[in-house]
Amino acid sequence: MEGKEMSTFGEDLIQAMGEALAHAKGEGTAILHEPVDPREVRMRAKLTQAQMAPLMGMSLSGYRKWEQGQRRVSGPAATLLRVIEKEPGAVQRALAG
């Protein structure tokens, strides 16, 4: 990173750390994500696990761990799952180039 990019990144990191510290102290607001079931999303989108994994940017084995409950779905991944649930074609088109 160069000059201004590093400065912006540093400022963003400091802000994020401050928000995390405030949340740990019970201060401030937290963003809570409703749980999302990747298998249900995949089934509604009529996709196979092999089709779903690349849409999520992960390996097939990693995706399967989500469906088996061995891995937890994070906030950003949950958001992407919600987009795939509503508009799977949009995500496929975006990733196709």
From TrEMBL:
PROSITE patterns with a match to the protein in the record: HTH_CROC1 (PS50943)
Record domain HTH cro/C1-type: where: 39-91
Bilayer-crossing regions: none
Taxonomy, superkingdom: Bacteria
Residue stretches in coiled coil: none
Leader sequence segment: none
One term of GO molecular function: DNA binding
Name of the protein in its database record: Transcriptional regulator, XRE family
Gene source species: Paracoccus denitrificans (strain Pd 1222)
